[in-house]
Amino acid sequence: MNGASDSTPRFNPKGIPAAPKDPLYSLVSAYEADESDQKVDLGVGAYRDENAQPWILPVVRKATEIINQDTKQNHEYIPIAGLPEFNSAAQSLILGVDSIAIKEKRVCSFQTISGTGAVHLGALLMAKFTPRPSPFVFISSPSWPIHDQVFDTVGLPVRHYPYFRKDTKTFDFDGMMDVLKSAPKGSIIVLHACAHNPTGVDPTDDEWKEIAKVMQANELFPFFDCAYQGFATGYLSQDSFAVRYFVQQGFQVAIAQSFAKNLGLYGQRVGAFHFVAGPGADAQSITDNIASQLSILQRSEISSPPIFGAKIASIVLNDPQLFSEWEKDLLTMSGRIKKMRKCLKEELDRLHTPGTWDHIVNQIGMFSFTGLTPSQVLELREKWHVYMAETGRISVAGLNDRNVAYFARAVDDVVRRVL
């Protein structure tokens, strides 16, 4: 006996309740179990081609062949920070090759387990070195559900700022600005760099400038999540406007970057976390210190990142010819999604579906916040075999020439009958 009483706190597996199932993964399982030959998957956040199949980018096939033909390749560990040539290329992609922050060595970068790992690594850093009581982390309402989970998991208190107006299905600029103006100094503001998930609604360039002005005046810290660079508009520099503008304005910035969507490397889990120090005499010292702490956090979590996906991305990013081909692939994906938005809107207009559907074409990127209610979504699933998030979000990439008219008829039906 060690003298401990029965009341001593202890780990008790029997007291652990079952966690709720992830709704999107449950949706995937339900779709796969459906035997209807008319079923439509609009839930998965992954690009699908015209045949509703995963698309391996031609440039990714070429990069893979280069790796496979390399007789010197091995499977040794790479550095804790990741593949150096990948990290430097990822920096340039998000910040711009002529970025003053890169030239002044104010950026440290770590390869991560896709965008989720990047958000988590950044959140761990902030949780470890944020004084208590912690400042709030403000996340858009709505947002990617994992944002709330990650910051809550590391113990940072989460609040929300308005982002989407349900009545107009547009960006709630005034609502967001009101919260930013009243947020406590030092608060962390999570921002979607482009193609906001789940709404598909982005601020304009001028609105981004106003957001930056208020955040600078109120000493708020920007944490950008960039999962869709080049995938949203089809143009890499256009999709990184907000990140580059904030850096130009002298902000210290955290950036989570993913290559799942824009390179189609979903299962390879290729991402990066960047910390950009503000300009100043101590900038490089700050950057070095941050890098040293990220090394400890990374070492304790994954030791070192996986190599294969990072090699694919690195080859594409660093080879001018392949990079040019990649830009064409991005236009192919973004262009097909824009086409499907247009087709869906035209079908709904042709059917005289009640309501206005301009938001379908005004939104951007993979997702559209349709405005459909949970009961309408359930009816779509049960009667029409259409699978989508309960929030009314659809992955537009799941539409194609063969199912877009069917989906429009389904929407028309439930809008007329179900509240």
Automatic annotation (TrEMBL):
<keyword id="KW-0808">Transferase</keyword>
<dbReference type="GO" id="GO:0006532">
    <property type="term" value="P:aspartate biosynthetic process"/>
</dbReference>
<dbReference type="InterPro" id="IPR000796">
    <property type="entry name" value="Asp_trans"/>
</dbReference>
<dbReference type="InterPro" id="IPR015422">
    <property type="entry name" value="PyrdxlP-dep_Trfase_small"/>
</dbReference>
<dbReference type="InterPro" id="IPR015421">
    <property type="entry name" value="PyrdxlP-dep_Trfase_major"/>
</dbReference>
<feature type="compositionally biased region" description="Polar residues">
    <location>
        <begin position="1"/>
        <end position="10"/>
    </location>
</feature>
<dbReference type="GO" id="GO:0004069">
    <property type="term" value="F:L-aspartate:2-oxoglutarate aminotransferase activity"/>
</dbReference>
<keyword id="KW-0663">Pyridoxal phosphate</keyword>
<dbReference type="InterPro" id="IPR004839">
    <property type="entry name" value="Aminotransferase_I/II_large"/>
</dbReference>
<dbReference type="GO" id="GO:0030170">
    <property type="term" value="F:pyridoxal phosphate binding"/>
</dbReference>
<comment type="subunit">
    <text>Homodimer.</text>
</comment>
<dbReference type="InterPro" id="IPR015424">
    <property type="entry name" value="PyrdxlP-dep_Trfase"/>
</dbReference>
<feature type="domain" description="Aminotransferase class I/classII large">
    <location>
        <begin position="38"/>
        <end position="410"/>
    </location>
</feature>
<dbReference type="InterPro" id="IPR004838">
    <property type="entry name" value="NHTrfase_class1_PyrdxlP-BS"/>
</dbReference>
<feature type="region of interest" description="Disordered">
    <location>
        <begin position="1"/>
        <end position="21"/>
    </location>
</feature>
<dbReference type="GO" id="GO:0005829">
    <property type="term" value="C:cytosol"/>
</dbReference>
<protein>
    <recommendedName>
        <fullName>Aspartate aminotransferase</fullName>
        <ecNumber>2.6.1.1</ecNumber>
    </recommendedName>
</protein>
<keyword id="KW-0032">Aminotransferase</keyword>
<comment type="similarity">
    <text>Belongs to the class-I pyridoxal-phosphate-dependent aminotransferase family.</text>
</comment>
<dbReference type="Pfam" id="PF00155">
    <property type="entry name" value="Aminotran_1_2"/>
</dbReference>
